[in-house]
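Dear colleagues,

For the upcoming journal club I promised to circulate an example of a predicted protein-ligand complex. I picked one with iron/sulfur cluster because it came up in last month's discussion. The inputs are reproduced below in full, followed by the predicted structure.
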Amino acid sequence: MRFSKSNDVLGTTNRGNAAESSLCTLCRADCKGKCETWLSSLVGRKLLYPRSFGMVTAGANNTTHVGVSYNSLRIQGYAYGSHGLGKGLTNDPDDCIFPNVNLETKFGDTLKTKVRMPLMTGALGSTFIAEKYWDSFAIGGALIGIPVVIGENVVGVDLKSKIGKGKAKKGKIKSSPELERRINTYLRYYDGYGAIIVQLNVEDTRNGVAEFVAEKYGNKCIIELKWGQGAKNIGGEIQVTSLDYALFLKNRGYIVDPDPTQPQVKEAFKQGAIKSFARHSRLGGPNLDTVEQVRDDFMSSVEYLRSLGFKRVTLKTGSYGMEELAMAIKFASDAKCDLLTMDGSGGGTGMSPWNMMQSWGVPSIFLHSKAYEYASILAAKGEKVVDLSFAGGFALEDHIFKALALGAPYTKLICMGRAIMIPGFVGTNIEGALNPEKKDKIFGNWDTLPKTVSDIGTKAEEIFASYFDLQKKVGKKEMKNIPYGAIAFYTMADKLACGLQQLMAGARKFSFDNISRFDLFSGNRETERETGIPHVSDVNDESAKKILNA
Ligand code: SF4
């Protein structure tokens, strides 16, 4: 394992057990620290380097590669050359410096969406943790200039949303305060980079979410069809602890478990034997038996969304097997979708059943390796391949580089779920501790700053390394409206961006179009076999021998 509980080099310690991503297997909103992502939300790019400079030496512990994961891929560096230099730059060493690496990119079929760095958020839907910290995620994402995804069921679980009855979808949703809040919060800070994406699952489709968004926001939003996610092979779940809320959700058409309408369940709840209810979504496409039927259904859904006026339509699929992967790539390409996000097993943000999360589906590196292979099959036939976004267990800058390179030239974005939520939590907790009058309203979890924070500073200007960068961007007056969670997200993204620039500069790639699979090698033979990325000692071995024999 690359990650153990603590990293002496960086001075970080996971509160719980470390997962493949580097985050804890259970990440808490009230965490006082301090994993790498938590701390980088405060100190930003400083965390790219070992601590205690001047009195230490440091060595990597990721050199015994066992098994196959993103952590067993390694990144190339070259001793000469430079590629993809931007306008006005030459191959002079003064120009070929990492801050000159251009992280901007774009995705989409015809209408391109620009992004400031190749990152997007995972889908943050009806799970309450997304609702509570939404301002941090949305404002942070908009300020960074990356797409933020509103996940499924936001309208359905909103006690204040008004949904009409009847089969006609159009005009069914009269109002949806929570969905509107989420979209408006992002759009307030949107400056031409990034996008707000709204996801649709079975219940959202029934409720008429697409029609509502089309009418109210038009092309300010991207609409996304959802096939699945990496964390579970069933639909999304949330947990509610009130009988009334459970009944409300049941009436809204959700599967609620246990069934709150049953007298014995009501009695068990009253006595305390049942303390909560799980709200589940339905499986998609149970009435479809063949690949052709899935294709027809998908094509007509995309066509219908376009008929509502959406110019950009995307698809998110989960860590299903190879047949579904091929269908997703082929159908999304044929339908000229703007992005296909494929979420490998291991990731998760909400309330997925734990053993399901541990044991179902195709782990990210296998899914993404096959995605590259399948995309290449289409490209070899002269077909245009949909832009890809890889998701599932990513948190660090090397993950972004490796995943982009593994899927190059088809991958345009890397999607992070849990990792980008951490700055939202820690920033909010700091804001609540420093402004006790706000604490409950913003869902802060701390009464005072823990030592892990006060060691860095005691006010926002001291704590967040990117505070003044952001203030320069939004202005001193507006800075007062930016939640600390968004400042933390901006700070963490700055660390990721800087780290990515450094990795790219070392690989001599100064823009994304130039990143390729040749920029990676496999740390073990199993990884080589599964990814098609040659083993570390085989890459350029031939040209090395030519040099020796010349
Ligand atoms: S922020 Fe989350 S992942 Fe990081 S140490 Fe705390 S609990 Fe673990």
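Two points we might discuss: The mean pLDDT is 93. The domain at 105-420 is CATH 3.20.20.70 (TIM Barrel).

See you all on Thursday,
B. R.
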